[in-house]
Amino acid sequence: MPNPWDVGSARFLAQAGFVALASTSAGLAFSRGLPDTVTAMPREVVLEHLRELAAATPLPVNADFQSGYASDPEGVAESVGLCVRTGVAGLSIEDVSGDPGAPLYEHAIAVERLRAARTAIDASKTRVLLTARCEAFLVGAPDPARTAIDRLVAFAEAGADCLYAPGVRDPATITAIVSAVAPRPVNVLVSSPGLTVAQLAALGVRRVSLGSALSRVAWGAFMRAAREIAEAGTFETLAGAAPFAELDGIFG
Question: Minimal CA–CA distance to 39: which of 25, 23, 52, 59?
């Protein structure tokens, strides 16, 4: 489930043969010249972006909905209701607070926020899939594996359809997460070379997403080319550009 950051990248991924897409909060933020924080992007901007992605292709789109653009459960429920109406097929809710001193919401509050998201989806009478994310690995929590497993189990019990702990890479930990929340599916983030899709499937993983990786690949090529031109006055990196005619044909 790759992560486009705009309509063009979504349409290309659909033509490349993928069967589902997911948004990326980081990819969107970087395209707007902003950092990927829970407060950087206004909710309405994100909702409009999701409407564009959902309409761009026939494929189902999962929304990277960060922390629900609210701190309290009632606010999360309101945001989730608005997100559902954008046409997405699924959405994820994180347990990250945005507070450097306490980067994860307290366990009970995190569960209540997830339960509020579940209630909002149920009230919408849709089949939008709810993914619960524990950010323990990304925020450097003590014993992140234990924290993630404890929270993902609680999130599953609170109504999450899919469980996700971005940042986990160790096969043994992945297997432990899969076992702990079974039979619910587990999503694993791949943001750099490592385990293959086949290897992850053998560990019991049911969904793989790329987060900001594809947008960062594009940024990497852009930055290398721009720096070469600015610093050396040469244009060698332009040799790796996608052919104009191919892009014109894809979007024509």
Answer: 25
Cis peptide bond prior to 142, omega within 30° of 0: no
Residue 63: which H helix or E strand, with range?
strand 61-64
DSSP letter string, 64-76 = E-TTTT-SSHHHH
The angle at the Cα of 46, spanning 12 to 109, to the nearest 5 degrees, equals 120
Burial pattern 212-223, b for ≥16 Cβ within 10 A else e, equals bbbbbeeeeeee
Total tally of structural domains belonging to the chain: 1
133 burial level (CB within 10 Å; 0-12, 13-18, 19+): buried
pTM greater than 0.85 (yes/no): yes
Q: 240 lies in a domain? A: no
Residue 248 lies in a domain: no
Per residue in 5-64, pLDDT (tens digit) is 999 999 999 999 999 999 999 999 999 999 998 888 999 999 999 999 999 999 999 999
The Cα 177–Cα 185 span in angstroms is 10
Q: Residue 103: which CATH number?
A: 3.20.20.60
pLDDT tens per residue, range 183-196: 999 999 999 999 99
Whether residue 11 lies inside any domain: the answer is yes
What pLDDT does residue 38 have?
83
Give the residue-averaged pLDDT of 192-220: 97
- Decide if 225 is inside a domain: no
For 66, the domain range is 7-212
